[in-house]
Design goal:
Elements (H helix, E strand, L loop, with lengths): L11 E2 L3 E6 L2 E3 L14 E3 L5 E6 L8 E4 L5 E11 L6 E9 L11 H4 L2 H6 L5 E8 L8 E5 L6 E6 L11 E7 L10 E6 L4 E5 L4 E3 L3 E4 L7 E9 L5 E7 L5 E6 L12
Antiparallel strand pairs: 1-2, 2-5, 3-4, 5-6, 7-8, 8-9, 9-10, 11-12, 12-13, 13-14, 15-17, 16-17, 17-18, 18-19
């Protein structure tokens, strides 16, 4: 990018290319030398998000760009894959996104996190979204997006069955906030089957899960277990929880000798 330094929190990987979501953000790392926090290093731009498809084999002449048709901010990629042939060829990019900058929101402000009114008032509202990019035919360059996660809930830290990474998948899991549709601290883990439109949820009062890890144990997609640490907000104690990845029912829970708060990434 000639006129700015973009910020990429994550990106998609295809068989022969990478898909880079260029957010409407410009980053200047120089103030970090003087202790400026992350949000102070970013400048929001009044431009749409752009998808850049960069061949793994190199060659700048084959670089392709697509206008996302709106301003989207990205945190974590769910999956990226190619679908269709000929004039129907598309790239599918599933990710957790927001229409507001999540790197400058109540989610990372300690004062806001300690104030329930401010927490619950809203913020970046991360959610899972699918972008279908048409790369051939008369509609080449068209980008269509649709909501994948439940409306009114925040969703992030997604996981899929790693055997389906880079190819069409149906199932993903994600951590939820506002799982009750109201309170930011109402956390849960959703299993979403995007092919069948079915959502299965694990949720327990005053329980705060971190990012889950999927462990496959069967032939079918998503057959296995979810491993996650959970903080009990009432007792202040943490546990290691195993969920059936299909039913989202607990199969084992082991108390931990230490208190583990929400740790974002659980890998």
């Amino acid at each position: 990018v000639k006129d700015r330094v973009p910020y990429l929190h994550s990106f998609g990987v295809l068989r022969r290319a990478v898909l880079l979501p260029l957010q409407p953000l410009s980053v200047d790392m120089r103030p970090a030398l003087f202790g400026t926090p992350l949000q102070g290093l970013m400048r929001e731009l009044s431009v749409n998000t752009t998808f850049v498809v960069l061949p793994l084999a190199g060659g700048g002449t084959s670089l392709r760009t697509f206008n996302a048709g709106g301003r989207y901010f990205f945190t974590h990629v769910i999956n990226t894959y190619e679908e269709g042939e000929g004039d129907a060829a598309t790239l599918v990019f599933d990710a957790c996104v927001s229409h507001l900058n999540p790197f400058h929101s109540t989610a990372i402000a300690i004062a806001a996190q300690r104030n329930k009114t401010r927490r619950d008032a809203g913020g970046a509202m991360m959610h899972a979204r699918r972008f279908v990019i048409r790369i051939a035919g008369p509609r080449r360059g068209e980008v269509v997006s649709s909501l994948l996660s439940r409306a009114g809930r925040e969703a992030d830290f997604p996981q899929i069955d790693s055997r389906y990474r880079g190819r069409k998948h149906c199932i993903y899991w994600a951590v939820l906030w506002r799982a009750d549709g109201v309170a930011y601290g109402a956390m849960a883990i959703d299993r979403t089957d995007v092919c069948r439109g079915k959502v299965t949820t694990w949720m327990r009062p005053a329980s705060f899960p971190s990012e889950p890890t999927f462990l496959a144990s069967g032939e079918e997609e998503g057959q296995g277990a979810l491993l996650v640490t959970v903080l009990n907000g009432t007792s202040g104690r943490s546990s290691f929880l195993t969920l059936d990845a299909t039913t989202m029912q607990p199969t084992l829970e082991v108390p931990l000798p230490v208190r583990i708060p929400f740790t974002t990434h659980g890998q």
